[in-house]
Design a protein that fits this description.
This protein has 26 helices and 13 strands. It is α/β, with parallel strands linked by helices. The protein has a domain of 192 residues: 3-Layer(aba) Sandwich (Rossmann fold). The chain has a six-stranded mixed beta sheet. A three-stranded antiparallel beta sheet has the order 11-13-12. β1 and β2 form a beta hairpin.
Length: 574
């Protein structure tokens, strides 16, 4: 039964407390989300959320088995699905039953790969509610992140007290009877949760005023034992979705990111100058690898950052065509800008300063160590293990603030993460490459090389083997980056950071042969597809040429054709 504002006003303590509380919460949230930072939160670089928000493609996903494939594979799969085949769901309609369904929705789970826009989506939903544009029937929207909830792991709260901590307005109003209102809890970032969420063994908890662990509160809230009248919206990366029992979720949606028209809309919103926007859009379309990755909003931001820097320069530089090139340029752009800003380095000096080199190596070590553990968020103790001094890094290296997010939760505890999982994978690959080049250490093998063995070739072979052995392809993109760093074109971009490298063409030729042997072996199409992309990162087109010859002759194996269609790297003439 819906309450209007008059009924709401009459509900509590003489009528005014709840309404005033709602107004204060809306005012608080409007200040928080009206202007946000794109990519990196930093002072003076905030944009109106409504100005740059580009509608994302959201669709219903079956609530069956969770897809645990590496997220780059999911992006590539999504890029091949015509959007018109599925019914898109608008942000403001996330809780509306789809046509032909009458059952009300209590709990929704929205999945999507890292950087696809899940958090921005929840912020946009909240801002639209605050501004009265949508979902007028909701009286209170409480947006909580698992990053903040993690910090309360050892604490005990009642649900009322938990809301008091995050929304002081509820404490001031003295609200306890939340069952009288239409309340929405948005729980953002389940994949970053470090709470047990033990649905099987946690005791049932029904009293909103009785304290218990945050873990017990959350499991009972999601299960519907605690405040069953509330709606719940959970966002997560796909691999973590199974932490919530299927019977607790009424509907699963998936954020696919940008469709092709939405990619163009993003770049045109970002660059009001039509000529510049057209140039960037045209370049992205020419490279299949870049075009696929631009399904991710964060990758669009990285691409825009790099290309606008290159286009601003008077001398013509080669535009990045591969993913490794794009990330190498991105790291270079951010590092040099930081050195010029903080250390007064000359505009003409193209090299890294010692401070930037030091922090990049440290962040690379952190990225590699945490990638092996599957962690995307880190705390101060994790940084200390890699000898990263937070204050020193923040003050002395522009790189730190550029590629790392720092968020303050309750009690000023800090949570850290890379801007995007792919940036963590790039820095991890860079660290492995640097460790070999500078120290002769192969971090991918515990066995010492035999005498006379090509040690660099062995590193690449170990990388290929580990990627093929990794469950669900978690090291797929890491491998692409590692192999891509062997190219001189990328090493030139990173000059001053890598020192003397000089990967021999013979080593690369042998690496290509090793990859082709693996492709010819008994691999799944997905594994073969990633190796095909690895050849592209190595600038090797021989397999494409071989397939072209087969196309011309009319002889083409089923597997080769599958690879060709999946990777979409064939010449347009075919």
């Amino acid at each position: 039964m819906e309450m209007n504002h008059e009924e709401l006003a009459d509900t509590l303590w003489g009528g005014s407390a709840a309404v005033q509380c709602q107004h204060k919460i809306k005012s608080h949230l409007k200040k928080k989300f009206k202007c946000v930072s794109e990519g990196i939160p930093k002072a003076g670089n905030q944009t109106g959320l409504n100005d740059f928000f580009t509608e994302l493609f959201i669709t219903e996903r079956g609530s069956g088995e969770v897809n645990k494939e590496h997220e780059v594979r999911l992006i590539e799969t999504a890029s091949r699905k015509p959007a018109k085949e599925e019914t898109p769901i608008k942000c403001e309609d996330i809780f509306k039953p789809l046509p032909g369904r009458d059952q009300p929705i209590r709990t929704i789970m929205t999945t999507g790969v890292a950087g696809i826009g899940k958090t921005i989506l929840t912020q946009k939903f909240t801002l639209d509610w605050v501004e009265g544009k949508a979902n007028h029937d909701i009286h209170f929207t409480f947006l909580l992140t698992f990053r903040e909830l993690n910090l309360l792991k050892e604490k005990e709260y009642s649900l009322v007290e938990l809301l008091h901590h995050f929304f002081i307005e509820t404490k001031e109003a003295g609200i306890c009877r939340y069952e009288r209102f239409k309340v929405l809890f948005i729980l953002d970032g389940l994949d970053e949760c470090r709470l047990p969420l033990d649905f099987q063994n946690n005791q049932t908890w029904t009293d909103v005023k009785e304290p218990t662990s945050v873990d017990v509160l959350l499991t009972n809230l999601i299960r519907g034992d605690l405040l069953p009248s509330a709606r719940i919206w959970i966002t997560t990366r796909p691999a973590a979705a199974n932490q919530i029992p299927a019977e607790c979720v009424d509907m699963v949606t998936e954020v696919r990111g940008f469709t092709d028209p939405q990619k163009e809309e993003y770049f045109r919103k970002r660059f009001r100058e039509e000529t510049l926007a057209n140039t960037i859009i045209s370049h992205v379309k020419k490279s299949r690898s870049l075009h696929i990755m631009c399904h991710i909003p964060v990758f669009c931001w990285i691409t825009a950052t790099v290309l606008v820097d290159i286009l601003k320069k008077s001398q013509k530089e080669e535009m990045p065509k591969t993913v490794t090139q794009m990330y190498s340029y991105f790291l270079w752009v951010q590092s040099i800008q930081g050195d010029r800003k903080y250390h007064g380095r000359a505009e003409t000096d193209p090299y890294w300063g010692p401070e930037s080199r030091k922090i990049i190596v440290s962040l690379g070590k952190l990225a590699f160590n945490q990638l092996k553990k599957g962690n995307l968020i880190f705390y101060e103790a994790d940084l200390a293990e890699c000898h990263i001094d937070i204050k020193e890094a923040s003050v002395y290296s522009g790189v730190f603030t550029k590629i790392f997010k720092e968020e303050c939760g309750l009690y000023q505890d800090k949570v850290f993460c890379f801007v995007h999982l792919s940036l963590q994978e790039f820095l991890a690959a860079l660290y492995v490459f640097l460790s070999f080049i500078n120290d002769g250490v192969n971090l991918l093998s515990e066995e010492p090389p035999t005498s006379g063995e090509d040690k660099l070739l062995l590193l690449y072979q170990n990388g290929v083997d580990k990627a093929l052995q990794s469950e669900n392809g978690q090291l797929d993109l890491f491998l692409r980056f590692l192999l891509g760093l062997s190219l001189e074109t990328n090493q030139i971009v990173l000059r001053g950071l890598l020192g003397q490298t000089g990967t021999s063409s013979l080593t690369n030729t042998k690496t290509v042969s090793y990859i082709k042997e693996k492709i010819d072996g008994d691999l799944s199409p997905e594994r073969s597809m990633n190796l095909f992309h690895c050849l592209n990162e190595l600038n090797d087109r021989s397999l494409v040429k071989e397939i072209e010859q087969y196309l011309t002759s009319g002889r083409l194996s089923r597997k080769s054709l599958s690879l060709l269609l999946n990777c979409q790297l064939w010449p347009s003439s075919y």
